[in-house]
UniProtKB/TrEMBL annotation:
<dbReference type="InterPro" id="IPR029058">
    <property type="entry name" value="AB_hydrolase_fold"/>
</dbReference>
<dbReference type="Pfam" id="PF07859">
    <property type="entry name" value="Abhydrolase_3"/>
</dbReference>
<dbReference type="InterPro" id="IPR050300">
    <property type="entry name" value="GDXG_lipolytic_enzyme"/>
</dbReference>
<keyword id="KW-0378">Hydrolase</keyword>
<protein>
    <submittedName>
        <fullName>Alpha/beta hydrolase</fullName>
    </submittedName>
</protein>
<dbReference type="InterPro" id="IPR013094">
    <property type="entry name" value="AB_hydrolase_3"/>
</dbReference>
<feature type="domain" description="Alpha/beta hydrolase fold-3">
    <location>
        <begin position="21"/>
        <end position="218"/>
    </location>
</feature>
<dbReference type="GO" id="GO:0016787">
    <property type="term" value="F:hydrolase activity"/>
</dbReference>
<comment type="similarity">
    <text>Belongs to the 'GDXG' lipolytic enzyme family.</text>
</comment>
Length: 248
């Protein structure tokens, strides 16, 4: 896509004109279209759509955001109807999905029909209180680790810049949004804050908190009942939004 690697996950009997534009996480230092193809393919199968997995260069801001924006422009250039397209992203992929939408909105590009966020990393100030209150539940994403990842991604940019931390952005005009977050993860607090900010901006938003689950637990799809339930909810939420285009 515009010179970037990509991967189609096409379930049997998928409706060809329904696309889930999928942005993987990994803290900006790991993850790929291959590590996440199972996660997004499970969702595509449940939703009856194709998933397009987007690769981006794992460099400091703004390179990843530029790459995902390029990929979205490419998709539109193929004649895919944005009203039959949904975005999904996990962790930093959620950040990039939101930030790409904000760029599209501000540059006059058509927006997709829906946005799904899995444990989105939306606040690179790494200051939410759940980094401490959920610390004992966490296995990896301690405040020190996330602060290091944030520093590497920012490379001198302000952590409160809207295109870096969507929590500080104007979210008005964004499409319906569904957030899933684990009750035990350290990024829980910023998801809760983001939901409230989106709601105040007039966005149709839903948030489901899954008790005792950790960051991006949906990666266990096919092996974990909690993960399978999360995928089922995502699919049920997004399917009607891809089926019936809404005039803008």
């Amino acid at each position: 896509m515009g010179g970037l690697p990509a991967l189609w996950a096409v379930p049997k009997e998928a409706v060809e004109d329904r696309v889930i534009f999928s942005v993987h996480g990994g803290g900006g230092v790991s993850g790929s279209i291959y590590t996440h193809r199972k996660l997004f393919a499970h969702l595509a199968k449940a939703a009856g759509a194709r998933a397009l997995l987007v690769e981006y260069r794992q460099q400091s801001y703004p390179v990843p955001l530029d790459d995902v924006t390029t990929a979205y422009r490419w998709l539109l250039d193929q004649g895919v109807d944005p009203r039959r397209t949904a975005f999904i992203g996990d962790s930093i992929g959620g950040n990039l999905a939101i930030s790409t939408m904000l760029r599209a909105r501000d540059s006059g590009l058509p927006l997709p029909a829906a946005l799904m966020l899995i444990s989105p990393w939306v606040d690179l100030t790494v200051s939410n209180e759940t980094f401490e209150s959920n610390r004992e539940n966490e296995e990896f994403f301690y405040k020190e680790v996330v602060s290091y990842l944030a520093s590497a991604y920012l490379a001198g940019a302000s952590p409160t810049e809207a295109s870096v931390s969507p929590l500080y952005a104007d979210l008005s005009g964004l499409p319906p949004m569904y957030i899933q977050v684990g009750g035990h993860e350290t990024l829980l607090g910023e998801s809760l804050e983001f939901e409230q900010k989106a709601r105040k901006a007039g966005v149709d938003v839903r948030l489901d908190e899954f008790p005792e689950q950790l960051h991006t637990f949906q990666m266990g799809a096919g092996n974990s009942p909690e993960s399978d339930e999360a995928i089922r909810r995502l699919a049920e939420w997004v399917r009607p939004r891809l089926t019936t285009p809404v005039a803008r």
